[in-house]
Amino acid sequence: MTSEDPLADRLQLDRPHSARVWNFLLGGKDNYAADREAGEMIIKMFPDIALLARLQRGFLVRAVRHLAAEAGIRQFLDIGTGLPTVDNTHEVAQRIAPESRIVYVDNDPLVLVHAQALLTSTPEGACAYVEADVRDPETILEAAARTLDFSKPIALTMLGILGQIPDSDEPEAVVARFLDALPPGSYLALTDGTDTNPALNQAIAVYNANSASSYYLRSPARVTAFFDGLEAVEPGIVPISRWRPEPVDVGRDPSDVDTICGIGRKV
After folding, report:
1. What digits encode the pLDDT tens for the residues 43-87?
2. Which stretch is the leader sequence (predicted)?
3. What value does the mean pLDDT take over residues 231-243?
4. Helix, strand or coil, per DSSP, at residue 176
5. Whole-structure pTM over 0.70, yes or no?
6. Max avg pLDDT among 22-31, 50-59, 134-143
7. DSSP code string of 208-253
8. What percent of the chain has pLDDT over 70?
């Protein structure tokens, strides 16, 4: 790419971006020097950050598996997709129900570059990609309606994305707008980082000062409030290491980590 390339300008390769830093923390290769430097800085200040990244990915798999296999959901709206990796939402859902339909949403230009990797559906199902900001629900909902049937239940997944919205943009109102558009029987699966660890708070503050984007940690009570009005799926809104851990994890200490998660059903 040349400097005249508008995509190259949007990628801002000299500054870390959240999706690329997260990709680095997950052991991926779709990142650049600035992203790796930011990731290494966070690891140095808060060594458990890579564990949090893996736990969040594990929750995605378990949540989608539950929603497709136990709740019977066949439509997924995945906002804040991030870069493709192993076990993306459509792969997990379509292994269980090949007819599942998935819409991915992200505003990171590098995710757009890799979107083709996401758009590989089974013949029976469908995948689509929407480039949009989570703070623009109307655009997202209008585009998603080309693939999803909003008269039938939909699972809305928002993993780590609300922490990228400052309080001034009213993240609670953003979530409410999406939920208002979903019919009864739909679900919200959500994770977000909490402000309960001074080391993590400091690491995120340094990251925010050097990144093209910012992340906003919130109290557990505020993250839990995103589920207001929903019926929580067992075991409720809990630290991410405690949400239906895999059998391989039984016997390990499911200590409280600085991310909480849950699934709520709209009744």
Report:
1. 888 888 888 888 888 999 999 999 999 999 999 999 998 777 778
2. none
3. 95
4. helix
5. yes
6. 134-143
7. HHHSSS----B-HHHHHHTTTTSEEPTT-SEEGGGSS--GGGTTS-
8. 91
Mean pLDDT of the chain: 88
How far is 165 from 80, CA to CA, in rounded Å?
11
d(CA 144, CA 147): 6
Pairing of β 75-79 and β 101-106 = parallel
Average confidence (pLDDT) over 120-148:
96
Structure tokens at 18: 């959240």
Supply φ then ψ for residue 130, to 5 degrees. -120, 125
Q: With both helix axes pointing from N to C terminus, report the angle between 18-25 and 49-69 in degrees, rounded to the nearest 10.
A: 90
Q: How far is the C-alpha of 241 from the C-alpha of 50, rounded, in Å?
A: 13
Give one DSSP letter per residue of 79-101, joined into a string: ES--S--SS-HHHHHHHH-TT-E
Rg (CA), the chain: 18
pLDDT computed for residue 1 by the predictor: 44
CA distances from 71 to 96, 103, 164 (A): 12, 19, 29
Q: How many helices (H) and strands (E) does the chain have?
A: 11, 8
Predicted confidence (pLDDT) at residue 94 exceeds the cutoff of 90? yes
Residue type, 195: D
CA terminus-to-terminus distance, the chain: 49
Residue whose C-alpha is closest to residue 200's, from 259, 261, 260, 262: 259
User: How would you class 250 by CB atoms within 10 Å of its CB: exposed for 0-12, middle for 13-18, buried for 19 or more?
Assistant: exposed
Bridge partners of 232? 264
Cα separations in angstroms, 186 against 3, 113, 230, 235: 45, 30, 10, 18
